[in-house]
UniProtKB/TrEMBL annotation:
It comes from Natronospira elongata. Residues 2-220 form the ABC transporter domain. Homodimer. Forms a membrane-associated complex with FtsX. It is found in: Cell inner membrane; Cell membrane. Keywords: ATP-binding, Cell cycle, Cell division, Cell membrane, Membrane, Nucleotide-binding. SMART domains: AAA (SM00382). This is Cell division ATP-binding protein FtsE. GO terms for cellular component: plasma membrane. Transmembrane segments: none annotated. Its main location: membrane.
């Protein structure tokens, strides 16, 4: 599904965020990405979503070399990657329904299909009863679930989450991770960046670890 082949990323100003990173993810695999602050986790996720491009090396997505995707192709690529952030990035003056509908509205989908898909996505995160609420009226965990509904509403083959449980207590964090597992079970490839070693260890899933921009071999850490 995803292959990184000796990928490096330097930012203007000389910050080397990733150095020669290689790994592969199978379709419908669930993997955690961990590492210290500044290790390059967000940068790696941004390369998958084409929010940044590599300085060297190749990223393959579903067999396609992303270096060959032109500027105009980027919005089409982004529809294949559902993005979830720690701070939800919800529009505060729009209802839950409108927030989730936004990616479909942008893609030009018809009203009836939008309604059907948004309600299905809200149902998947158990928030159908809150579709008319404004984000401010929701708890932190509920707001994160709206962010997840918005990420999955276009039915992308991959979900990428950057510290999705960063602001949540352990019980709510487990609930959010449980949601990701449900999407994985229906064939979605999932990558979750997290600092939360305890929670990650509990899940027993595959873990990729970055240290100062380099991928550490699994046998070198616990
Ligand atoms: N837009 C940017 N311009 C310049 N340097 C950047 C930019 N984004 C990230 N960096 C640098 O690249 C390195 C990796 O940052 P990145 O955000 O990928 O790490 P991270 O592991 O996600 O950290 P955190 O856990 O704190 O979010 C850091 O040194 C950071 O300062």
């Amino acid at each position: 599904m995803i292959r990184f082949d000796r990928v490096s990323k330097s930012y203007p100003g000389g910050n080397q965020a990733l150095s020669e990173v290689s790994f592969e993810l199978e379709p419908a695999e669930f993997v955690y990405l961990t590492g210290h602050s500044g290790a390059g986790k967000s940068t790696l996720l941004k390369l998958i979503a084409m929010l940044e491009r590599p300085t060297r090396g190749q990223v393959l997505f579903g067999g396609r070399n992303l270096a060959k995707v032109s500027k105009w192709g980027i919005p089409y690529h982004r529809r294949k990657v559902g993005l979830i952030f720690q701070d939800h990035k919800l529009l505060q003056d729009r209802t839950v329904f409108d927030n989730v509908a936004l990616p479909l509205v942008i893609s030009g989908m018809g009203h009836r299909e939008i309604r059907r898909r948004v309600q299905a996505a809200l149902d998947q995160v158990d928030l159908l009863h809150k579709e008319k609420a404004l984000p401010i009226a929701l708890s932190g965990g509920e707001q994160q679930r709206v962010g997840i509904a918005r990420a999955v509403v276009g039915r992308p083959p991959m979900l990428v989450a950057d510290e999705p449980t960063g602001n949540l207590d352990p019980a709510l964090s487990r609930e959010i991770l449980g949601l990701f597992e449900r999407f994985q079970q229906v064939g979605v490839t999932v990558m979750v960046a997290s600092h939360d070693h305890r929670l990650i260890r509990e899940t027993g899933r595959r873990v990729l670890t970055l240290e100062q921009g380099q991928m550490i071999a699994p046998e070198l850490h616990d």
